[in-house]
Write a structure and sequence with these properties.
By secondary structure, the chain is of the alpha/beta class. It is built from eight helices and seven strands. A seven-stranded parallel beta sheet has the order 4-3-2-1-5-6-7. It binds adenosine monophosphate (AMP).
Length: 197
């Protein structure tokens, strides 16, 4: 058994997606709650974020929101978080989300989600964290990005170990099973392991 309690979920802020994306966000939230985990997320009422977070709460988990003042001033903040942290800006917010979570799941999302996910992968690549990072590939949404990641490796912009930094889940249950069974690496990568090809 690992010590994971808080799962950080990055996800779309859009309310205009196909049903399939809300369906997976909902199912993931249910599983997070039912399996005794809490969610750390953007603290908003929007898109897949709230679809997922509200289901965590409905299923016995805690909802921990982290949002910068500017987005709260815009009226994006939900008052329904069990815990809420106001951040200075987007970078400060990511730092807080990172510090208070032990695992990461990216649902389908836009540039905001992509930026958050890439940062977490790079942090792990360079040994700043050892967390499980899961890409939930609803509807094959991330197929092209994963192809691009493969190209990065094939053309030697990164080495093959990069593929082990994240796990691609086909379904919410698969994502939760991976996190449940995750064994943290016992050490951080060496310079050779990061930069050899
Ligand atoms: P996007 O994928 O571009 O829709 O951005 C969503 C991601 O960026 C989420 O994982 C959030 O952490 C963050 N984000 C973007 N917009 C908001 C918002 N209005 N409220 C809270 N977080 C947001």
């Amino acid at each position: 058994m690992n010590k994971i309690k808080n799962i950080c979920v990055f996800a779309s802020s859009s309310n205009y997606l196909e049903d399939v994306y809300y369906k997976d966000a909902k199912a993931l939230g249910q599983l997070i709650g039912q399996n005794g985990y809490n969610i750390v997320y953007g603290g908003s009422t929007l898109g897949l974020m709230w679809t997922c977070a509200s289901e965590v709460q409905n299923n016995g988990g805690k909802v921990i929101g982290v949002m910068p003042q500017r987005l709260a001033d815009m009226g994006c903040k939900t008052d329904n978080c069990d815990e809420f942290f106001m951040a200075v800006g987007m970078r400060d917010r990511k730092d807080k989300m990172d510090k208070i979570s032990e695992a990461v799941i990216a649902l389908a999302g836009g540039l905001g989600t992509l930026e958050e996910l890439s940062e977490m992968i790079v942090q792990k690549q360079l040994g700043y964290n050892k967390k499980p990072i899961v890409i939930l590939n609803t509807n094959g949404f991330y197929n092209k990005l994963l192809e691009f990641f493969d190209r990065i490796i094939e053309e030697k912009f990164a080495n093959k170990m990069t593929r082990n930094l994240y796990y691609v889940a086909k379904a919410p249950q698969d994502a939760i099973d991976y996190i449940k069974n995750y064994q943290e690496p016992d050490r951080i990568p060496s310079k050779h392991e990061i930069y050899s090809r």
